[in-house]
Design goal:
Layout lengths: L16 H7 L4 E2 L2 E2 H4 L15 E2 L9 H11 L5 H25 L3 E2 L17 E2 L11 H5 L4 H4 L15 E2 L2 H17 L6 E7 L1 H7 L8 H21 L3 E5 L6 H4 L6 H18 L8 E5 L18 H4 L6 E4 L12 H4 L7 E4 L12 H15 L5 E2 L16 H22 L3 H8 L1
Helix pairs in contact: 3-4, 4-7, 7-9, 8-9, 9-11, 14-15
């Protein structure tokens, strides 16, 4: 069940440090905006020539009290005391989830999206223009099998207001707070991850969840969203973090928006989405960008999912260096074979999901290792980072995997990556001796 509510009007926020960066003249050198070169030590999507690094798709389970208050905020049920308490809970949760990732051995960590109600719908709190009547998603596989719909979406609570006015980014203050808190958590940690990324919604996935009732065309709406989200992407980069663009629209969009259209028509549509994404990230070095391709993080038949082979050539035209994609669940685990026939462009790396985020089975580390090695054998071990299919809490109250088991699965991810590394990065002389 998706609970929706109509948001109140959003007022423009006062200028903050990020706003000052945005006011500087934009001078692009080698495709990177110099406003952000001078603002921070630029992060980059890491790889290793010595072992398989580990990461995940972004969202992680929130503490129960925080989750409860965030849902109350979403449904307009917070009292004044709770409103005042919420930022402190978010701050504590970010520090705790960062520490837990390091303890688990995750190399490339995130803030777990602790302060977001949902990976895509959070943007309505940071942009104007979303005061229209709520909409609802249409998922083709659940329409074919309605008896599983309630179970598949159990606990999912988020508001999905439609766009009824000009889209403008008004959330710089909230974004500044989020990035500042993450930076403090990273800098004050006794042990920090090798790299930190911050997820952000793609223009296309926003258009899926927050329907257009204002712009005269989908393309115009997409362009407005891209221009607004450019501010968020560039701010994350300016803060010194890797930017992860969440792009379910390039895969899940097929059975949500284009289920009754042909594959060529869907391909044409997502080519426009990639064009919008590329425009929105034009000022950021591709090395500081990764993207996440997803078919929907809910347990269902998924028999309407588009095949990776039908879209991969278009997906690979996106600017981000890193491509994270589902590769562990029963519908897409076989698609490592796609890369036997599709060359990975120079400079790009793969972040295959080797952990399924829709099942409470804890994968055996040897299975994780096998999945990693399949990709490594095709594109090279130095171009593979081990990840998860999707997030473990893509919406605050939506937990297909129980929290304790989510962390157990991440432990297995780390152990599996270690086992794969022992074989993939074994000295050539040792490999020769074993083969002999």
């Amino acid at each position: 069940m998706i609970i929706v509510s109509k948001p109140s009007a959003v007022s423009p926020l006062p200028a903050v440090n990020l706003a000052k960066i945005m006011e500087r003249p934009s001078v692009v050198h080698n495709g990177v905006d110099d406003r952000f070169r001078s603002a921070c030590n630029v992060a980059a999507v890491l790889t290793s020539g010595r072992r398989i690094l580990t990461t995940h798709a972004g969202s992680l389970p929130r503490p129960p009290e925080l989750a409860e208050l965030m849902v109350a905020r979403e449904t307009r049920a917070l009292d004044a005391t709770q409103v005042a308490r919420l930022p402190h809970l978010v701050r504590d949760a970010v520090a705790a989830v960062l520490r837990r990732q390091v303890e688990s051995g995750i190399d490339v960590a995130s803030d777990g999206e602790q302060g977001k109600i949902g990976y895509a719908t959070y943007v309505k709190e940071r942009m104007s223009g979303f005061g229209g009547e709520p909409g609802a998603l249409s998922l083709a596989d659940l329409e074919d099998y309605p008896e599983i719909a309630e179970r598949a979406l159990a606990g999912l609570i988020t508001a999905t207001p439609s766009c009824d006015g000009p889209v403008r980014y008004t959330g710089l203050e909230e974004l500044q707070d989020e990035l500042d808190e993450l930076r403090v958590a990273v800098d004050s940690a006794s042990a920090a991850p090798a790299e930190v990324f911050v997820p952000a919604a793609s223009p296309g996935v926003i258009a899926i969840y927050l329907a257009n009732q204002y712009y005269d065309s989908h393309e115009s709406y997409l362009g407005a969203l891209a221009e607004a989200m450019r501010i968020e992407y560039e701010a994350i980069a300016a803060a010194g973090f890797v930017v992860q663009i969440d792009c379910p629209d390039l895969a899940m969009g097929r059975h949500v928006q284009y289920a009754d259209r042909s594959i060529p028509e869907f391909r044409m549509a997502i080519a426009g989405h990639v064009e919008a994404l590329n425009a929105a990230t034009a000022g950021i070095d591709p090395d500081q960008l990764r993207m996440h391709l997803c078919w929907g993080n809910y347990e269902s038949p998924h028999h309407r999912d588009v095949d990776l082979a039908d879209i991969i050539d278009i997906v690979l035209t996106a600017r981000p260096r890193g491509l994270a994609l589902e590769a562990a669940n029963p519908r897409h685990a076989h698609e490592w074979k796609v890369f036997e026939h599709t060359s990975l462009p120079d400079g790009k790396i793969l972040i295959p999901g080797v952990i399924d985020t829709c099942t409470n089975y804890v994968e055996h580390p040897d299975l994780v290792a096998v999945r990693i090695e399949r990709y490594a054998s095709i594109v090279g071990a130095e171009r593979v980072i081990a990840g998860t299919d999707c997030g473990f809490a893509t919406f605050t109250s939506f937990l297909p995997v129980l929290p304790r088991l989510a962390w157990a699965k991440l432990d297995s991810l780390v152990e599996g990556a270690q086992r794969a590394s022992e074989r993939l990065f074994r000295p050539s002389s040792a490999r020769t001796a074993v083969q002999a």
